Amino acid sequence: MIPRSSYLRGLLQSSGFGSFSSKLGAYACYASKTESSLQQVSRTWSPLHYGEDEYANVDWDNLGFGIMPTDYMYVTKCSKDGNFERGQLGRYGKVELSPSAGVLNYGQGVFEGTKAYRKEDGRLLLFRPDQNAIRMMMGADRMCMPCPSIDQFVDAVKQTALANERWVPPPGKGSLYIRPLLMGTGPVLGLAPSPEYTFLVYASPVGNYFKEGLAPLNLYVEEEFHRASPGGVGGVKSITNYAPVLKAIARAKVKGYSDVLYLDSVTKKNLEEVSSCNIFLAKVFVQSFLSADVMSLQIIALVLRMIFILELCTLYGLCLKSKFY
């Protein structure tokens, strides 16, 4: 078994995040305090005052993966000093932006995605939102942006889930997808960081992302277009990473495929990532070693992928042989 705190600290340092790890406020120490994968959302206040058993008028049996406007979203802003003001819940609606906003002109923005689930006893659970907060911090640093603290991020996610509680599907019917978004909203003309930033969180009830549900996917191996390249921003959830893959996805779907599987941009021999998610491959040898490429900085979900691998090692009593590149 690999001690989580010391392993993650070494992993951050070896990957070039050594200097950045201090800005995270002792990442490994914080991660070790997470007692459970699922955090309960305490019902302390709801702006809508709906009953705990009341649901929105939704066909839960035919819930796909698409935007369904809910009741509330969370918004906070900050200036160049990097300090975000106290956020507030407001009605879900349009966001006003300057035509010269940094996010519109230069794509200065990052986002996250997490979910709230409803248990049979009515409790709402979140899956490690602190890990999403850490990943957003890494992305914000790469995109030259200030970022809410881990506590601010987690609190915003919990407030959004609770305010939209009636939109959380019944147990087994789906989840409430929660989208934290950090973007440069201040006006800027020359190529430079935005003078103002907005952090907002909205939500939508969803079912399975793919129409196949839990059935195997039919992936198209892309040899012309690439998802990421060395030295780029493929390792963070920058908003600039996603529009370039739309052409490849559209071409694959015309041919009847579910999504696109990309090869590495250097050798075109290694599997790297799917358009909308990671792909995880593991080999279990007779010597009880788990072999996995855990440190490719070109692909998304660095922290969450590490957590999954470590949990897998713990569950099956395996040692980890990792490849760093």
TrEMBL record:
Q: Tell me which cofactor or cofactors this protein depends on.
A: pyridoxal 5'-phosphate
Q: Which SUPFAM superfamilies does the UniProt record give?
A: D-aminoacid aminotransferase-like PLP-dependent enzymes (SSF56752)
What residue ranges are annotated as transmembrane?
297-319
Q: Which residues form the signal peptide?
A: none
- Keyword list, A-Z: Aminotransferase, Membrane, Pyridoxal phosphate, Transferase, Transmembrane, Transmembrane helix
InterPro entries named in the record: Aminotrans_IV, Aminotransferase-like, B_amino_transII, BCAT-like_C, BCAT-like_N
One GO BP annotation here?
branched-chain amino acid metabolic process
A GO molecular function term, named singly, is: branched-chain-amino-acid transaminase activity
Q: Does Repressor show up as a keyword for this record? A: no
Q: What's this protein's family per the entry?
A: Belongs to the class-IV pyridoxal-phosphate-dependent aminotransferase family.
Q: What is this protein called?
A: Uncharacterized protein MANES_18G051400
Q: Which source organism does the UniProt entry give?
A: Rhizophora mucronata
